[in-house]
Amino acid sequence: MPAISRFFGLTVYLYFIEIHRHELLADWKLAASGKTPFKIPPLR
């Protein structure tokens, strides 16, 4: 995989984490307590 593709993929991944930070943390807490996490919509 070319370096530019890996860089772009990582950038998109980090952007997704940033815009869904609160949802990801809430889902982590649910999953850690044995509950089913909510679905988070994908990037469009």
Which key features would you list for this structure?
44 residues
How would you concisely characterize the structure shown here?
The chain has 44 residues and is mainly α. It contains 2 helices and no strands. The chain starts with a helix and ends in a 12-residue tail after the last helix.
Describe the structure.
There is one protein chain. With 44 residues, the chain is mostly helical. 66% of the residues lie in helices and 0% in strands. It has helices at residues 3-19, 21-32. The longest helix is centred in the N-terminal third of the chain and has 17 residues, at 3-19. It is elongated. The model has no long low-confidence stretch (mean pLDDT 89).
Q: Flag low-confidence runs.
A: none
Share in β-strands: under 5%
Based on CA atoms alone, the radius of gyration comes out at 13 Å
- The residue-averaged pLDDT reads 89
Question: How far is the first residue's CA from the last residue's CA?
Answer: 23 Å
Broad shape: elongated
Order of helices and strands: HH
Which class best fits the helix and strand makeup? mainly alpha
Major β-sheet profile: none
Number of helices: 2
Number of strands: 0
* Share in helix: 55-70%
